[in-house]
Amino acid sequence: MERKEEINDVQNEVEMAVPDEKSTGKKNRKEKKEKAGGSERKHSITWNRNMKTLRNGSYSVAISAVVIVVVVLLNMIVAQIPTKYTQFDISTGKLYTIGDDTINALEKLDSDITIYHVVQSGNEDSNIEKLLEQYEANSKHIKVVKKDPVVYPSFVTSYSEEGLSENSLIVECGERNKVIAYSSIYETTIDYSTYQQSVSGFDGEGQITSAISYVTSDSLPVVYYVEGHNEVSIPSGLQDRVEKANIELKALSLLTADEVPEDAAGLLMNSPEADYSKEEVKKIEEYLAKGGRAMILTDYIGKDLPNYQSILAAYGVEVTDGIVVENDKNHYVQMPYYLVPNINYAEVTSGMTGGSQYVLLSGCQGFSTSEDVRDTVNVSEILTTSDDAYVKPDPEKMTTYEKEDGDEDGPFAVAALISEVISIADGDLEDDTAKTTDGSEEASESASAQQEAGNTKETRIVCFASSSILDESFNNSVADGNYTLYTNSLNWLVDTDEAATVSIASKSMETQYLTVTAARGVFFAIILCIVLPVACLVVGGVICYRRKRR
User: How many other C-beta atoms lie within 10 A of the C-beta of residue 133?
Assistant: First the structure.
């Protein structure tokens, strides 16, 4: 029995060890089925991912297309907006920006003007092209047309027989035209140490505005400069500025002329070294008494010029004997007689007040206003010294700049505007206005009545107490402040209903230097040489001390 049980146990173990073929087949089929299902699920997931990616890609493409269309439409809309609203001039000298004087001139235009830009396509000067866009954008009467000199050779020769270089301009209004050569748009200087030429200024706005004024004016003013007394000459640079304002300059000898010419829009009397004769003064006084205009410059020359100074005295302006010396360091540069005067508000100083620009004069005489003058005369001081100024009566023998006994106290005017409204009835000055010296109320009331009736003219005089207003080096030291005031004053003189002038200064392309008064120079020296080094030492000491304490 025991033997039989052992045999049964062995059989059972063998049966347990041998796998069931049927169950094994089921298991294999199940595993295969599971593998097939997993493969199908993976394929389904991959398909879903691809479809999702495709949908997302299509959405992105659609959004991109919409954005591109919107950008193109915006560019097309913006392209129609005038460039003055879409472009900003960030150049140092504002080369592409037109000034207020030009804008005012364009606003007054009532005639159509064509500006021909003579240039081949692709050779345009970018400065000129951008500037022309500003003119076209600021006036509906301005039209810019490009003309290729190769394609239209006869067009160019019809305006200039000698031909024009590329980027030259032709400004035309009706039958009047003016050619602006490319060489006149850019100013150049020569370094005589190396004999190299460099561009120093861009005069595009000045030349174009001047040309517009020329072609739209029926008549141009003529200003005569008096000669024959060793007067100070007008520098070429300033002459160009005056001519750019469409003012013609002519010489006048009062010794040989019977009178001041009838076409004179003004007289320039530039600080003579020899006195005028009484006959010459009489001719000037007769001219001024009829509503004439004059600019009078004076200088201390060590001798009296009674006849010359009597012209100003007739309008209540007295000239001091000597030169003005400043004791206020905020009103001079380097030397006490290099004056930086206060600029008072007036029509000719518009845009120059408040420290925006300076004027530099040297060796100034002083002007004082007399109360014993006609009520019809108006004197406006445009340049004045400080209260600490005084006059050295004999500068040739001066031993100190300090104030001494006998030195006349300031303040003084060193530039002034004089105006007087006068009657022109019967072509002569009425006795109750210009020839009246007692300042009666009847004269003033009569002048007012005449002015209201339109039977009046206005005498205008500008006087400067130093001819250094003409000096180019002084002008450069104050970034064109002197010439700006001079041309503004000249424009004010000749400005009438028949002829209005405007002159735009060229824009410098050179490095601008800062003019610092003596007081500011001392201030900056103290800050840079004392305050900042001491502050650095103190801060460094505090930092070292705190680190050691740690």
Answer: 16
Strands 142-147 and 335-339: unpaired
Torsion over CA: 234, 236, 239, 241 (sign): negative
What are the tokens at 139? 């006036």
Rg of the chain in Å (alpha carbons)? 42
Phi–psi pair at 297, nearest 5 degrees: -110, 140
Q: 267 by DSSP, 3-state: which?
A: strand
Burial of 469 (C-beta count, 10 Å sphere; 0-12/13-18/19+) = buried
Q: Shortest CA distance to 287 belongs to which of 300, 269, 305, 306? A: 269
Task: Given CATH 1.10.405.10, say whether it is the number of domain 84-217+500-514.
Answer: no
* In contact, 234 and 274? CB cutoff 8 Å: no
What is the C-alpha end-to-end distance of the chain, expressed in Å? 101
Q: Render each residue's pLDDT in the chain as its tens digit; 550 residues.
A: 555 555 555 555 545 555 555 555 555 555 555 555 555 665 666 666 666 676 667 777 788 888 888 888 887 777 666 555 555 555 555 666 777 778 888 888 888 899 999 988 888 888 888 888 888 888 888 999 998 888 888 888 888 777 788 888 999 888 888 888 888 888 777 665 676 767 777 888 888 888 888 888 777 889 999 999 999 999 988 888 888 888 889 999 998 899 999 989 999 999 999 999 999 999 999 999 999 999 999 999 888 899 999 999 999 999 988 899 988 888 888 888 999 999 999 888 887 877 778 999 998 999 988 888 888 899 999 999 999 899 988 888 888 888 888 888 889 999 999 999 987 654 454 444 344 334 444 444 544 444 444 578 899 999 999 999 999 989 988 888 899 899 889 989 987 544 456 667 667 665 555 566 666 677 777 888 888 888 888 888 888 888 887 7
Of 83, 150, 151, 155, the C-alpha closest to 116 is 155
Q: What is the DSSP string of 409-450?
A: E---EEEEEEEEEEE-GGGS--TTTTT--S--HHHHHHHHHH
User: Distance (Å, rounded) from C-alpha 123 to C-alpha 148?
Assistant: 10
Compute the distance between CA of residue 477 and CA of residue 359 in angstroms, rounded to an integer.
9
Q: In 3D, which of 318, 364, 322 has the Cα closest to residue 341?
A: 364
Beta-bridge partner residues of 197 = 190
Q: Which segments of 189-270 does DSSP mark as H helices, in order?
A: 204-216, 236-244
CA distance 373 to 275: 24
